[in-house]
Amino acid sequence: MESKKEKCIILGPSASGKDYLKRKLSERGLKSLVKYTTRPPREGEVDGVEYKFVTQEIFHRMIESSRFLLHQEFGVWPKDKEPEKWYYGISREDFENSQVMILTPGEFSQVEGLDRQNYFVVLLDIPEDIRRQRLSVRNDNNDSIDRRICADRDDFSTRIDYDLKISDPDFEVEMVWDLMY
């Protein structure tokens, strides 16, 4: 069997199934990337599993000491709260040692020049009405659905170099696995 790609990069807007795909590929033995973030954990999220939750002070010290391969800032407008900034980052070490990762288009553009032939890029392009419904049942009070959908439209408005585009909300992980390896 020929190994086609070293790493799987998953791209997709909010509630498109990125975490599901990442979890299922991790269950097959791929080492999963865990990003750093300053945003508050959602209900049920565990530090070090979904994200490495850090303070803004620690995050900025990591930037200053060049620990990140890439990082991004997002402005958010939580319900009934003042706007705030959240930061997300990927350490060099974590990126190099991971096989499956979720990236934003902005993050992907920062790593795109790195040996592209070693990545299998999956774009989840699930219809907006289905994503809105999924977001509504999450009861995520940290951010508004409309803001996320709008931001996703902007983020995914540019061309993305992908190997597989999935539009079926009930996609089979087996298909992704088979195409990767």
Report on the architecture of this protein.
The structure is a single chain. The protein is built from seven helices and eight strands; from the N terminus they run βαββαββαβαβααβα. It is 34% helix and 22% strand. With 181 residues, the protein is of the alpha/beta class. The strands form two sheets. Strands 6-1-7-8 form a four-stranded parallel beta sheet, covered by helices on one side. A four-stranded mixed beta sheet has the order 3-2-5-4.
Write a brief structural summary.
This protein is of the alpha/beta class and 181 residues long. It contains seven helices and eight strands; from the N terminus they run βαββαββαβαβααβα. The strands form two sheets. It has a four-stranded parallel sheet with strand order 6-1-7-8, with helices on one face. A four-stranded mixed sheet has the order 3-2-5-4.
Q: N-to-C terminal Cα separation, in Å?
A: 8 Å
SS strand fraction = 15-25%
Task: State the major sheet.
Answer: 4 strands, parallel
Model regions low in confidence, pLDDT < 50 over at least 5 residues: none
Assembly state? single chain
SS field, number of helical segments: 7
The helix fraction, in percent, is: 25-40%
**Radius of gyration from CA coordinates:** 16 Å
**Please, what is the average pLDDT?**
87
SSE class: alpha/beta
Strands, count:
8
Order of helices and strands: EHEEHEEHEHEHHEH
Q: What is the overall silhouette? A: globular
Which strand order spans the largest sheet, edge to edge or round the barrel?
6-1-7-8
